[in-house]
Amino acid sequence: WPRTSGRTDGALTVGGVDVRDLAREHGTPLYVLDEDDVRSRMRDYATAFSGSEVHYAGKAFLCKEVVRWLAREGLGLDVASGGELAVALSVGFPPERVTMHGNNKSAAELTRALEAGVGHIVIDSYEEIARLGHLAGELGKRPKVMIRVTTGVEAHTHEFIATAHDDQKFGLSLNTGAAAEAVRRVLALPQLDLVGLHSHIGSQIVDTAGFEVAARRLATLLVQIKDEHGVVLPELDLGGGYGIAYVEGDEAPDIKELADGLREIVTKVCSDAGLPVPRLTIEPGRTIVGPGGVTLYEVGTVKDVEGLRTYVSIDGGMSDNVRTALYGAEYTVVLASRESDAEPMLCRVVGKHCESGDIIVRDCYLPSDLAPGDLIAVAATGAYCRSLASNYNYLPKPAVVAVSGGASRVIVRGETEDDLLRGQL
Ligand code: LLP
Q1: Fold of 6-33+290-419
Q2: What angle do CA 285, 288, 293 make, to 5 degrees?
Q3: Among the atoms of ligand 1, which is closest to the Cα of residue 283?
Q4: What is the tens place of the pLDDT at every residue in 155-210?
Q5: Helix locations, 205-254, DSSP H
Q6: Structure pTM?
Q7: Distance 239 CA to ligand 1 centre (A)
Q8: The predicted structure's pLDDT at residue 155
Q9: Ligand 1: which residue has its CA nearest to atom 23?
Q10: What count of other Cβ atoms lies within 10 Å of the Cβ of residue 212?
Q11: Complex ipTM, two decimals?
């Protein structure tokens, strides 16, 4: 739950606002983002990684207001598309604090990034080296680039979000020599300024050993590059992927320990080889915005399937949170609009879409007097819920409200039926 959440008068409050008031004012489903929680996590990262760069991974959840928070808290931003870059530029975020990612950036996206003057572009393929070199030459720019290295680390997380083993689409492999070949090719192009190496091993990872192995391998590659080319690359970007707690008993890595551990490893490998210690960047997404988010739903039906379980249908579903359907994610859910002493009953919280896999919480206990009109709240939905939302079954995407100091304000307007019909001929 968000750092500022609590209970008043039986109802859940976030940022000092009663969820019943939020539902009355803004409707449901509703994404609620605790501004103080999110901004304090931005600051925690900046403190733990002081001397390093912290780039928020915008894919977790991006909108203009979040970009303003980043600007004020002194963080950088990672974008993975021209659209994400457009959000940042629309509110005047300093382009030099933006890194552009992606395994298949289009020529238009690369051109936009070059014209805007983004701080770094992370190269993901041989084709991209040639493509970016050509575009940079045409525009008379010399972008700072990093090479995304696949370090061969087996991250312990869901298959869809593990990204450092060889058999997946991202990066250039250390094991096969593709990373070393990419270094050669980039160094041969005067239009590209190779400043470092990048690695991202996956997401929702709790065991920090994988991050350390990846950091050691990247630092070792820096040493090899110095030996082979006589070039000292000044930067390492260690990616993001740190896990958060979704249900009771989940563990989450300590940021300070993680920061110290990574720094120590890189410092040791580089100093032992007589190299200066590179500037480090990390790219957390989920850990910054995840815990501060709560999704509010209204219960519509409570169906008891005799002898099995109770199905609680809410007014949203896999269109506002696809993570359970996609990754088998687990969530904590509570009755939010009141307190109840009724016996707990085994429930499955399901959406209103035309799929039996439209599940928000697979197994949970809710009070047996749960009834239509009750509000339930799902915790830790700040990351990868709104950003992965769809309009399946023509459901409008819910609004996002920021809460702080007892007040709420809309930061992303909820879609209307007009929005859904716009653009249709
Ligand atoms: N940097 C790069 C290059 C990434 O690809 C990602 C996430 C991050 C940083 C941030 O990772 P985080 O700290 O948020 O774990 N939709 C999935 C997660 C996909 C993550 C994709 N890349 C989910 O809902 O679990």
Answers
A1: Lyase, Ornithine Decarboxylase; Chain A, domain 1 (2.40.37)
A2: 105
A3: 9
A4: 777 777 677 788 889 999 999 999 999 999 999 999 999 999 999 999 999 989 99
A5: 209-229
A6: 0.97
A7: 9
A8: 74
A9: 384
A10: 18
A11: 0.99
